[in-house]
């Protein structure tokens, strides 16, 4: 019985750990990582790195490697991968589950400006502040490259490429982050506006609390929708139960192709 996890997130790693803890000799788990992080935290089980070649390539891989079920546990903003997974599931008949952490929600005292894209976020910034804490990762910096009058503190796991803002300081760091650390960072760099994607989770949420305490505006880029028809769960435990149920002998799925 073969499970494929499209991973790279904390939730994906915990799902792989849950399956490994079951110690089932009949269960093979393959973790697929995109390879965008230089030194990823490897989960238990087999690991493959790199893309599949779109929906058709993923469908071919599912057939060739006799995958019985697979889970899209990629980052909430990995929209292309998620839609390719949905298309591959439809083409092969292999059951697909989306494992996605809940998004953030504003609370009293938050000053949020929600946008649908990085480009829209960049358009708002000149009216909100001059010193920007940009926490959207190293990809997508081109959307902010034209804002030459603004200064950016860019935090990412790996060094960003180009194009990027001309006035920029890079902070290489990986969560989880602490509230006290985020408070000190905002103060030390005289930040007056924060930009983030709605990634959800607790590891990077302290920046939102620190911004609220300081009365700073936060530009929040909304996450893309999950493809229609794909069931969604929000925690690795529920995903583990979903996999276990579908790998029972009397519930073994059919598939098209060899």
Task: Characterise the protein shown here.
- The protein is an alpha/beta fold.
- The protein has 7 helices and 12 strands.
- The strands form 2 sheets. It has a 6-stranded parallel sheet, sandwiched between helices. It has a 6-stranded parallel sheet with strand order 6-11-10-7-8-9.
- The longest helix has 14 residues.
Structural class: alpha/beta
For the biggest β-sheet, the strand order reads 3-2-1-4-5-12
What average pLDDT do the residues reach? 91
Q: Ends: how far apart?
A: 15 Å
Number of strands: 12
| Poorly predicted spans | 252-258
Q: What does the radius of gyration come to?
A: 20 Å
Number of helices: 7
Which percent range describes the beta-strand content? 15-25%
- Principal-axes shape call: elongated
State the oligomer.
Answer: single chain
Helix content: 25-40%
H/E topology pattern: EHEEHEHEEHEEEHEHEEH
Largest β sheet strand count, sense and barrel closure? 6 strands, parallel
Task: List the topology elements.
Blueprint: E1 2-6, H1 10-21, E2 28-33, E3 46-49, H2 54-64, E4 69-72, H3 79-92, E5 96-99, E6 111-115, H4 118-124, E7 131-134, E8 151-156, E9 168-172, H5 179-188, E10 193-197, H6 206-214, E11 217-221, E12 232-233, H7 236-246
Parallel strand pairs: 1-2, 1-4, 2-3, 4-5, 5-12, 6-11, 7-8, 7-10, 8-9, 10-11
